[in-house]
Every structure is written in structure tokens, then in C-alpha cells.
UniProtKB/TrEMBL annotation:
InterPro entries: Ig-like_fold, MetI-like, MetI-like_sf, Sdr_B, UgpAE/MalFG_permease. Keywords: Cell membrane, Membrane, Secreted, Signal, Transmembrane, Transmembrane helix, Transport. Belongs to the binding-protein-dependent transport system permease family. It comes from Lentzea roselyniae. The chain crosses the membrane at residues 21-45, 79-99, 111-132, 306-326, 347-368, 406-426. Gene3D superfamilies: Immunoglobulins, MetI-like. This is Sugar ABC transporter permease.
């Protein structure tokens, strides 16, 4: 065994030691070759054949890939992911790392933010699928949104109810087709509402009498079993708190609210013809939140879940970089009169630039391969709108497509997109070690 100095002054061992090193490296080389090199070479070879694998088609799979609308949507979504997600995670990691640097419980705070990394992406996808369920009784996001909304806007008293007949539906509500006059009696039977949901204050229906100068009427839920349609039956109850309007020539003349027995009275009406209108505010369906997993929001929702998962990763690396910054440089800037923002902008960020760049590139690589979150969170009806390249590759190869030639072409394209970022990271690590 001989030793010599290398070009950088390091000791280079040759002879038997190299053989022993090769022997120890052999298992790793075999595993790397079988799990990385062989699949890559085989995918490249397979991408040149058709779905059956028997007919050579050359670059046709690649041409079809770039003309397939679903693949183009996946490309678009991947561009959105690459532009938004890594930058957002890096910025959040930097902010949290700097803000928690001086607090006593910084380690505990960072540990809490890092905990999502301990959960698999599949399990995290299940969590966020439940979080963004549209039904407020199941989805936490909509439950909170509905709660806040109802604080500022009271829900309608009888959502989904409607008049039995004799009314025209419009944007402002239900307007009677027949005209009324002062002294008339108006009966307004409603349907489409469950008797079980009536207010506890509801009482048997008011029976208005004619023969006065006032316009009187009653509104009730006309759904009793075996009862007479459009007529008041004994077990039926009025609808309290319902708004009734008197309209003349399109303008509202008077407004009142029904009592506990569903009765209402309009006094002081002048002679003439009027219409009765039940405003739409009485029957509007309750606010149910947003369709988080619909075509418009599904991609931002999935990106937000990935940001929640990966922020702890960014904090850990950036905090390690912060601890390595010379404190003399920070203190010197403060002594020279720099504000904390100037210290952060002109000293901390430039010194952290290598760490921030490494984190950003690593996250870009991770984003380009995103699969589990999109597969789990996006419902089947909108999965095409949320599609990404990795998911498209799986669907084409093993889903309804069943075309492993086209799927292999997508795999090669995905590798070509990831390779530059990987090579950049490798070169950077080598420069830092030298």
C-alpha cells in the first residue's frame, strides 16, 4: 500500500485499500443500479414502443404527450407548483426561523412545525381531504367559515320553503299573481319545509276575518298528513318571523312580520290594487361555505397543504444556517445604526443566501415529483383540473389509460425536468466540501 499527496494536499491511498473500498461500495452500487439506473434505462427504452410493447413507434409517445390536453393541464399545474410552493415555503421558513431565534421556546415551536414531516404525504392528504370537505358538519374549514358568516349575516328563517301556488318567482322573491285590496283576507300556504324544523314558538294558524279596512292574512306550513291542500287544518301551525311586503307598481308600500301564529296585518292602506310579496330573504338556503375541492380552488388547496407539511423542513435548515452566521457581523451592523429590518435585509439574508438557495432547489425537486397529495385530496370529478405530471404518468401507465409506453415517456420527461435541479445541488455540495 502506498500513499501520496493529491492535487489539493490531501492524502490519497492506493493499492489494496482501493480494493477494500470497492468491495464495501459494491452493495450500494448494485442497489443503486437496480433501483435507479436500470428503471431509468428501461423506461427510456419502453417509451419508444406502443402500449403493447411490441411495435416500435419512435418519438410518437413524446409527440402525443405534448398534444394531450390532460398532459398540458398537468404541465400548467406543475409550473404553478414550481413558482408558488417552494418560494412560499422558503419565505415562511425564513420568517419563522428569524422570529423564533431569540425566544426561549424556539426549539419547541420549531418541533411543532416540523411534526407534519413525520406524517406520510398520503396520511396528510387524508387529513386535508377531511379538512376541506364541503359539508360544514364534516369539513373544519367550512364549519369555521359558516360560523363567522352567520355572526355577521343572519340565516334565512325558512330555507327552501315556497308558496304552494298563486305566486310568480323572481329575484326579489315570490309575488302574488292576483291583486289584493284593503279589507281583503290573504291566505298564504307554504310547502318545501320540514315541520320538525319549525320554531318552538310556532302556534296554530291564525284565522283572519274579513270585513275591516285592514289587509289581513296568514302564512302557514301546509303539509299536514291527510289535510286539505291550500286550506287551514287543525294541526297546522303558522310561520312566525316571516317578512311580508305589500307592493304597488313595483315599489314596496309597506312591510310587516308574521306573528307566532303566522298572522299579519297591514293597516292604513289607500284604495287601490296591491300585490303581496314574500321576499327571497325568507327562503334563501343557508351559507354552506366554499367549494374548496372544486375546479377553481382545488390546486391552491393542495398547495396550501404541502406548504403546511414542508414549512418545518425549511425552518430546520434555515435555523441551522442562522446559528452559523457570525454574530460579530450582526452586532457591527447594529452598532453602525442599522435598524433590525436593515440588518435582516442587508446582512442576514445575504449571509443565508447559500442555505436559502439550497432549500429552494430541494423544494423544487420535491414539487416536481408531487403525487400523493393530489391523488388523495382531489376528488375524482376534479382530479383532471388538479393533475400534475407524476399523477398523469401513473394514470396513463396503470389507470384507465393502460399505456405504459406513453407513461414511460412521461417518466423520462419528468426525469429531464428534475435532473437540472439535482445536478445543481450535487455541484453545490461538492464545491462546499472542497
Amino acid at each position: 500500500m502506498t500513499q501520496r499527496l493529491g492535487p489539493r494536499g490531501q492524502t490519497v491511498t492506493s493499492g489494496a485499500s482501493r480494493g477494500k473500498a470497492a468491495l464495501f461500495l459494491l452493495p450500494a452500487v448494485v442497489i443503486l443500479g437496480s433501483l435507479v439506473v436500470y428503471p431509468l434505462v428501461y423506461s427510456l427504452f419502453r417509451s419508444l414502443f406502443d402500449a403493447s410493447g411490441n411495435e416500435f413507434v419512435g418519438l410518437r409517445n413524446y409527440v402525443d404527450t405534448f398534444t394531450d390536453p390532460r398532459t398540458l393541464i398537468a404541465f400548467r399545474n406543475n409550473v404553478i407548483w414550481v413558482i408558488v410552493a417552494p418560494a412560499a415555503v422558503t419565505c415562511l421558513g425564513l420568517i419563522f426561523a428569524v422570529l423564533t431565534e431569540r425566544i426561549r421556546w424556539a426549539t419547541a415551536f420549531r418541533l411543532i412545525l416540523f411534526m407534519p414531516m413525520a406524517i406520510s404525504l398520503f396520511a396528510s392528504g387524508v387529513i386535508f381531504r377531511l379538512l376541506y370537505e364541503e359539508d360544514p358538519e364534516r369539513g373544519v374549514a367550512n364549519a369555521a367559515l359558516v360560523g363567522v358568516h352567520d355572526v355577521f349575516a343572519s340565516p334565512s328563517p325558512y330555507p327552501g320553503a315556497r308558496p304552494r301556488s298563486g305566486f310568480d318567482a323572481g329575484e326579489q322573491g315570490y309575488t302574488s299573481t292576483a291583486t289584493v285590496h284593503a279589507g281583503d283576507v290573504v291566505f298564504l300556504p307554504l310547502v318545501g319545509y320540514s315541520p320538525q324544523h319549525l320554531p318552538t314558538s310556532a302556534r296554530p294558524v291564525f284565522q283572519p276575518q274579513s270585513g275591516t279596512t285592514e289587509l289581513r292574512g296568514a302564512v302557514w306550513l301546509d303539509v299536514s298528513a291527510g289535510g286539505r291542500s291550500g286550506q287551514i287544518d287543525a294541526p297546522e301551525r303558522g310561520l312566525p318571523g316571516l317578512t311580508v311586503e305589500i307592493v304597488r307598481d313595483g315599489a314596496v308600500v309597506s312591510t310587516t312580520t308574521t306573528g307566532d301564529d303566522g298572522g299579519f296585518t297591514f293597516a292604513g292602506l289607500q284604495a287601490g290594487k296591491y300585490s303581496v310579496r314574500l321576499p327571497s330573504s325568507n327562503f334563501e338556503l343557508p351559507f354552506r361555505g366554499l367549494t374548496w375541492l372544486g375546479p377553481a380552488l382545488v390546486t391552491p388547496v393542495i398547495i396550501s397543504s404541502w406548504i403546511w407539511i414542508m414549512t418545518g423542513f425549511a425552518i430546520t435548515f434555515i435555523a441551522a444556517g442562522l446559528s452559523a452566521i457570525p454574530r460579530d457581523a450582526l452586532e457591527a451592523a447594529r452598532v453602525d445604526g442599522a435598524t433590525e429590518w436593515q440588518v435582516f435585509k442587508r446582512v442576514t439574508v445575504p449571509l443565508l443566501a447559500p442555505v436559502l438557495l439550497t432549500v429552494l432547489v430541494t423544494l423544487v425537486i420535491n414539487v416536481l415529483k408531487i403525487f400523493e397529495l393530489v391523488f388523495v385530496i382531489a376528488p375524482g370529478s376534479v382530479q383532471e383540473e388538479a393533475n400534475v405530471l407524476a399523477l398523469q404518468m401513473w394514470q396513463v401507465s396503470f389507470g384507465t389509460g393502460g399505456d405504459q409506453g406513453a407513461g414511460s415517456a412521461l417518466a423520462i420527461i419528468l426525469f429531464v425536468l428534475v435532473a437540472p435541479a439535482m445536478l445543481y445541488n450535487i455541484r453545490r455540495f461538492r464545491r462546499e466540501r472542497s
